[in-house]
Design brief:
351 residues; alpha/beta; four-stranded mixed β-sheet; 42% helix; binds 5-S-methyl-1-O-phosphono-5-thio-D-ribulose
């Protein structure tokens, strides 16, 4: 199994996703600042993986603290969490993970500095275990939606590399293939960062799942030719009304799918559902460096001084979403009700 991220005695270890698919190298972040940089620089990326990475970064910062009093440790926690929270704004899993670590701190603080350290380190590792289990559960639910055979389109990378392991959208595909469905994956290359071409193709090929990479602008033609039976993507944040923020280009795919009567599914854990954000309008969209668009592999592709936009995500309105697959089951429209119900069930179990 691909080890996207791992807690080790030396620090937090990541497979460097900026180097794939040509180099499979691992980096160890030795302090929380390095973990924050790894998130910002997309050495680790994908909403659930960012969440677990942040939790491990917080645990690492707390482990290395010299604080002798719990009040001093709490101040440091605040500082570490602020640093983590500044890395990337869109994936709500980051803020969910920070909140969970802060809550755990308060639950255990009365037991003193040493016990608090031990508990937070265990909590971060537990989040990794839970994330993988959630993906496997999502896979089981989502596999029932996949066609018995034929092409399934995905955008970006919502796989093992974007999570603790197994993946959300790719977890659904993996589970469908494990259940004997004859699926052929079409992976949008996903300009400008090429998560589809570089990462999705790499991890599916490692698993022997039949995959074709297409340039993003080919998806419509493939649908028209009847090559795509379903679309499944991940999400960075799902608003209370079911609007979905995901990798830039997802919206275009959803509109194309609707035009061709192809189901458009989103697979995401409930930690990606943000009931405090009423609609997609309020989701903050990260703007990334212009150079990601103007340059490719170190080579300049656009004239000096040209204006560039590089939003990393877009919002797909809920009306384009056929169903949202979560670890607690499949949410259907009206999403304001179904997402609330599934989230309440999950919260009741966690208590
Ligand atoms: O900018 P990235 O690579 O972090 O964006 C990732 C995505 O948009 C994924 O589709 C999303 O995080 C879901 S990952 C299970």
């Amino acid at each position: 199994m691909i080890k996207t991220l791992e807690w080790t005695a030396d620090g937090v270890r990541f497979i460097d996703q900026t180097k794939l698919p040509t180099e499979e190298v691992y980096v160890v972040c030795h302090n929380y600042q390095e973990v924050a940089e790894a998130i910002r620089n997309m050495i680790v990326r994908g909403a659930p993986a960012i969440g677990v990475a942040a939790a491990m970064g917080i645990a690492l910062g707390i482990k290395q603290s010299q604080a002798e009093e719990i009040s001093a440790l709490r101040n440091e926690l605040g500082q570490i969490c602020r640093r983590m929270g500044e890395t990337r704004p869109t994936a709500v899993n980051l803020f969910w993970a920070i909140r969970r670590m802060q809550q755990k701190f308060e639950e255990v603080a009365a037991q003193g500095v040493q016990q608090t350290k031990v508990t937070l380190i265990a909590e971060a590792q537990q989040m990794l275990v839970e994330d993988i289990a959630a993906n496997q559960a999502m896979g089981k639910h989502g596999a029932t939606l996949m066609p018995g055979s034929g092409g399934v389109l995905t955008h970006c990378n919502a796989g093992a590399l974007a999570t603790g392991g197994y993946g959300t959208a790719l977890g659904v595909i993996r589970a469908a293939v494990e259940a004997g469905k004859q699926i052929h994956v079409f992976a949008d290359e996903t300009r400008p960062f090429l998560q589809g071409a570089r990462l999705t193709a790499w991890e599916l090929m490692k698993d022997g799942i039949s995959t074709t990479v297409i340039a993003d602008n080919m998806a419509g033609a493939m649908m028209r030719q009847g090559k795509i039976k379903a679309v499944v993507v991940g999400a960075d944040r799902i608003a209370a009304n079911g609007d979905v923020a995901n990798k830039i280009g997802t919206y275009s795919v959803a509109v194309l799918a609707k035009e061709h009567n192809i189901p458009f599914y989103v697979a995401a854990p409930l930690s990606t559902v943000d009931l405090n954000t009423p609609t997609g309008e309020q989701i903050p969209i990260e703007q990334r460096p212009q150079k990601e668009v103007t340059h490719h592999g170190g080579k300049q592709m656009a004239p000096d001084g040209v204006k560039v936009e590089n939003p990393a995500f877009d919002v797909t309105p809920a009306k384009y979403v056929s169903a949202i697959v979560t670890e607690r089951g499949i949410a259907k429209a009206p999403y304001d009700r179904s997402l609330k119900e599934l989230s309440a069930e999950a919260a009741a179990i966690a208590r």
